[in-house]
Amino acid sequence: QVQLIVTCCRDSIVMSFPIQNVIRIIRLEACADWDADVTSKGSWVYELAARHIRLSTYIMLAVLYHATFDMEWAKELKFNWIAYVFLRNYLLMIVMYGGWHWFLFESAYSALMRKKKFHPSNPSDTQMFRDRLFTTLGFTQSSVWEVLMLHAWATQSKYLVPYYSNFWAYPIWSIFQTLLIGYWRDFHFFWIHRFMHPWKTKIIPDFGQFMYNHVHSLHHKSYITAPWSGLAMHPIEHLFYYSCTLLTMVFSLHPFHFWMNKLHADISPLPGHDGHDQPAGGSFFHHIHHSKYEYNYGTPMVPLDKLFGTYADGSKWEKGAEVDESKVK
C-alpha cells in the first residue's frame, strides 16, 4: 500500500482532465511531493506525447457523440434530433462545469484545495449567477452551431466541403487532423482573444478597445475565476469563439473531427478558469491574464505570446496579487 502511494506520488502516468486531476487531489494528503511541483521535467518527446494524451477526454467524448448520432437524422430539421443535440450538450455542461465546481468548492476536498486557490476570496453570488447564465448561453450557441453544421453536411450544402463517413478510409489524414485540433484551437483562440483587447493603434481606429468595452469586458468581470467562468462570455464573443469549427468549410473532415473541435471549445475553458493551482486546473498562466489583462492572451501550448511580447510567467507577482480594478468594466 505504501509503495502504491509512492508510485502515485511520482505522477509518471499522464491522463486527461478531469481524471488525472481528481486522482491527484484525492491523493494530495498522502503525497506531499505533489504540493511542491507536479510539472513534468521530461524530455520534449515526453512533453509532446503528454500534450496529446491530455486530449483524450475530448477524443472519447467525440467518439461517444458520433456513435450516438445518425447523420441521416440531420437531413431534415426535425424537433426530435435537434432537442437531442441540445439536451446532451446541456447534460455535458451540468456534469462537467457543475461537477467540477462542486468538487473544488463544495465537496469534502474543498478545504484541502483552498490553499491552492489563486485568489483568496470566492466569487460573489452575483458573479456565480452571471457565470452560470452566460455559460448556459454559450452551450446554447454551441448547440446551434452543431445543428446547423450537421444539417448542412447531411444536405450536402455548397458552403461546406463534403465529409467522409469512414474514418479509417484515410488513416493518415484522419490521424493528422485529430492531432492538429489542439494546436488549431489554441492558435484560433489567441487571435480572436487578442482581437478583443486594445490594439493601442494610432493610425487606424482601435477596434480592439471597442470590442473590449462592449463585448469582452463581460468575461473579465469574472476576475475571481471559478469553473463556470470559463465560458461566461458575451454572445457575440461566443460567435467568434465557436468559429473554430468552420474548418469544415476548408477541409474534408470526418464528423468526429467536428465534434472533437467543438467539444474542446466547450470544455477546455473549464480547467483554465477553475481558479486553482495544480493538482486542479493549474492555469496560473491564464490567471495572470485575468489579473493583469495585457498578458497571456493564448496558451503555453502554442507560444504566440512569446512571439509577440505579451508573455508573462508571473514571477514578478504573487498568486494573490491585486486585480487591476481600473480595467474591469
Describe the structure using short key phrases.
mainly alpha, 15 helices, 0% strand, disordered N terminus
SSE topology sketch:
Blueprint (H helix, E strand, L loop, with lengths): L1 H9 L8 H8 L6 H4 L7 H10 L2 H12 L11 H27 L4 H4 L11 H30 L16 H25 L11 H14 L14 H7 L13 H13 L1 H4 L11 H9 L11 H5 L21
Helix pairs in contact: 5-12, 6-8, 8-12, 9-12
Description of the structure:
This protein has 329 residues and is mostly helical. The protein has 15 helices and no strands. The chain has helices at 2-10, 19-26, 33-36, 44-53, 56-67, 79-105, 110-113, 125-154, 171-195, 207-220, 235-241, 255-267, 269-272, 284-292, 304-308. α5 (56-67) crosses α12 (255-267), α6 (79-105) packs antiparallel against α8 and α8 (125-154) runs antiparallel to α12 (255-267). The chain is globular, with a radius of gyration of 20 Å. The chain starts with a helix and ends in a 21-residue tail after the last helix. Residues 1-12 and 36-41 have low confidence and may be disordered.
